[in-house]
Amino acid sequence: MKTTLLFSSALAFAFAIGQCTAQIPNSGFEDWTQDGNYFTPDDWVTTLQGQPGPYFPVTRSADHFPSNVGMYSLRLENDPSFVPLGGGYGMAITGSFNFPFEPAFPIAGNPTNLYGYYKYNSVNEDTAFIKVVLFNNGVEVNSGNLLDDALVVMSSVAEWTSFNLQLDPYSAADSATIWISAFYPSSMTDLPNGNSVLYVDNLSFDGLISSVDNQVADEMLKVYPNPANDVFTLSKETLNIEDGLVQIHSMAGVLMLSEQLQKDEQRIDVSKLANGCYVVSVVGTEIHSKLKLVVEH
């Protein structure tokens, strides 16, 4: 288990944009569905079922990060007063709580890191974690201890904090599941130690999501197809972007491609880029804009 924490006040590259929809489902926890008297996050299985309220272990929170990305975060809260398997666990998973783990969503590009943001109020020495499980052809490729390939939070972190979890080496993966818990369940009957609360937001395999900066309406500047395979077209209608530049950066801020803009509709070759999310930056006499591009070969 190898984890590097980066405090949000010292982001190395405040340039990443949007959520990588080709990877983690509902990764920014913006999409929720009402079920009776509670809301549940789309594409995630939670411990909400069977809770009549007023306590809910999983809730939608308006306390989110970065403040200019989205509107909500995932909030998990334990309540040890509930008996085992009685719903007092603050947990969410992209697949199911079955053991062994099961593939939940497809992935591309054999990700090496998980990025995101969290904060945690640990009560009575509760330990929170965010775990990644990878699969290839339905078989776990990074099986091991429950806390392997996991961000482990053993004490309170009062402010939103970014993380970069480096995954253990593996050969290939085609799917994954992510499990988030506000305490460490070393067995199926473990109880949390206290009413600990964990917030999580903007998960990504591609880099830290730190801002959204689109200064031009979509109908004026377009990138298509998106996701792109080997080539995408950059199109403008009324803006003057002649003699401008188009640049493509990775979500970590590395410049991958740069070329001159010469046409109203220009085809850009991305056949040499790996699958994943990128930021397309367009700079001209009347525009300075960033848009998200997903590459899927």
- Report the structural category: mainly beta
What's the number of domains?
2
Strands, total number:
22
Report the sheet with the most strands, covering strand number, pairing sense and barrel closure.
7 strands, antiparallel
Helical segment count: 0
Order of helices and strands: EEEEEEEEEEEEEEEEEEEEEE
Q: Report the principal-axis shape.
A: elongated
> Which bin fits the share of residues in helices?
under 10%
CATH superfamily of the largest domain: BT2081, beta-jelly-roll domain
Q: Give the N-terminus to C-terminus distance in angstroms.
A: 30 Å
Low-confidence stretches: 1-22, 212-219
Q: What fraction of residues sit in β-strands?
A: 35-45%
The CATH topology of the largest domain: Jelly Rolls
CATH architecture of the largest domain: Sandwich
Q: Average pLDDT across residues?
A: 81
Task: From the alpha carbons, calculate the radius of gyration and give it in angstroms.
Answer: 21 Å
CATH class label of the largest domain: Mainly Beta
